[in-house]
Amino acid sequence: MSSIPRNPRPPSGGSDTASTFASPRLVAMALIAVGALLVLGALFADPLGISGGGEGFGWKQLIATIVGLVLAILGTGLLLGAFGRGGSPTRREPLVPLDET
User: Fold this and answer.
1) Per the confidence metrics, is the pTM higher than 0.85?
2) Is residue 85 part of a domain?
3) Residue 29 falls within a domain, yes or no?
4) Rounded distance between C-alpha atoms, residue 27 and residue 75, angstroms
5) In total, how many domains does the chain have?
6) Domain span including residue 44
7) How far apart are alpha carbons 30 and 59 in whole angstroms?
8) How far apart, in whole angstroms, are the C-alpha atoms of residue 36 and residue 82?
9) CB neighbours (10 Å) of residue 24?
10) Tens-place pLDDT, residues 14-53
11) Does residue 5 lie within any of the structural domains?
């Protein structure tokens, strides 16, 4: 018998449930990229010829810009850790010692 502990992970043919989901960092970067592309596409829709006609900044472009900004802001918040961690990443100690009775 070997003194090396066995690997608790499944064999390489399968994957554990944690690796089947995308990492939060990857999701955040994808949200930022999609949001930025949506904003740029909406802002430059007229010169690119994808605005659907009309003059000036249309309502569809406005909606696409707002949705793109929301996605980019959510992605930035996820990337910086503002969402999903349940609070501050550092442990805070109480200012007044708690009475342990």
Assistant:
1) no
2) no
3) yes
4) 7
5) 1
6) 22-55
7) 25
8) 20
9) 14
10) 555 555 567 888 999 999 999 999 999 999 988 888 877 7
11) no
The answer to whether residue 77 scores a pLDDT higher than 80 is: yes
Phi-psi region of 54 (alpha: psi -120 to 50; beta: other; left: phi over 0): left
Output the six-digit token pair for 90.
């550092």
Q: Is residue 100 part of a domain?
A: no
Rounded average pLDDT over 89-97 = 64
| Alpha helix positions (H), the chain | 17-20, 24-43, 45-48, 59-80
Q: Is the pLDDT of residue 101 over 90?
A: no
Of residues 73, 16, 45, 90, the one with CA closest to residue 8: 16
For position 50, what pLDDT does the model report? Answer: 81
- Residues sharing a CB contact under 8 Å with residue 70, sequence separation 6 or more, in sequence order: 35
- The secondary structure of residue 75, as a DSSP letter, is H
